[in-house]
Model the fold of this input.
Amino acid sequence: MKITTIFAKNNALALVIGIAVSLSPIFGAEAPVSGKLDVRANYVLQPSDVIKVQVFQEDDLTREVRLSQESSISLPMIGTINLQGKTLAEAQDMIRSLYDRDFLVNPQVTITILDYSKRSVNVLGSVNTPGVVLFPQEIGLTLLDAIARAGGFSRLADKKRVKLTRVNADGETKNFTINADEIMRGETSESWVLLKDDVISVPERVL
Done:
């Protein structure tokens, strides 16, 4: 009787291990916590994004909301929440903790992006197709990505003195001079992740 029981337990354990191994290529080494399965979890929420917030088994709390220009939303019970600079995963964790603190026991929160806000930068100067470059919907955009989407550097481009102009949230304008040649050669780890409405200007080389 003991041998049969041990054999059955071992078979059950083997089955569980087999299932875990078969799922690992999909979910990674560990199965994700509920609400973090979305492959866009690292996407930083933007003003005017439209999101759907759901709480498992709490259908009356489901809301479809658009982020304000200050990146805030309003949800039942917990009121107004500022999601400025939050990734999708961070926003889920924040909302989960707010519901868990005073209202629900171990709530499972899922956020789905229904509509992405339009984000763009301007690429000017010595590139092959200067103009407006749109961000890919769910990911960021780096300096070299934007230049590539603008047709790449022209033959006379000065890659060592690329200008980046950025207006901060407080209205302050900042100017940066970037050696894109170093980035292309892998001599720096700085990729210069762009923000909405950045302006990139590529000067011509002095011959």
The first helix runs from residue 2 to 27. Confidence is low (pLDDT under 50) at residues 1-39. The chain has two domains: 50-115, 120-202. Strands lie at 50-55, 63-66, 72-75, 79-82, 109-115, 120-125, 131-134, 162-167, 173-178, 199-202.
